[in-house]
Amino acid sequence: MRLSESFHSYLFLHGEWVLLAGALIAMILLDPYENSQTLCLFEQAGITFCPGEGFGRSIALMARGEWIESFQMHPLGIPGTAIITHRIYSIYKRNQSINT
């Protein structure tokens, strides 16, 4: 197997879950009370409404056990965490079946 084929195979097997896990960890490590620069493209474009506003902070609050504040920050933060975690797990199970 050539190096490029090996890289593509590795990226197919591990790319998505690595990105999802990294994003989830980054959101968990956020300080939900700090008003810092945002990565929101809507806000950077000057649009005041953003459908994902507070999603990362909601996950950070949930990880700290502040469930009510998490729901108030963004109602989909808690279910979103469950969905992302389930997707990481399903990719892991897929990789196990491919490697055997």
Coarse shape: globular
Mean pLDDT over the full residue set: 85
The proportion of strand residues reads under 5%
Give a quick account of the main beta sheet: strands, pairing sense, barrel closure: none
How many runs of DSSP E, i.e. beta strands? 0
Order of helices and strands: HHHHH
Nearest-angstrom radius of gyration? 17 Å
Distance between the termini: 18 Å
Helix content: 55-70%
User: Which structural class fits the helix and strand makeup?
Assistant: mainly alpha
Number of helices: 5
Which regions contain 5 or more consecutive residues with pLDDT less than 50? none
Write the layout of secondary structure elements.
Layout: H1 3-28, H2 41-44, H3 55-63, H4 67-73, H5 77-99
Short summary:
This protein is mainly alpha-helical. The chain contains five helices and no strands. The model has no long low-confidence stretch (mean pLDDT 85).
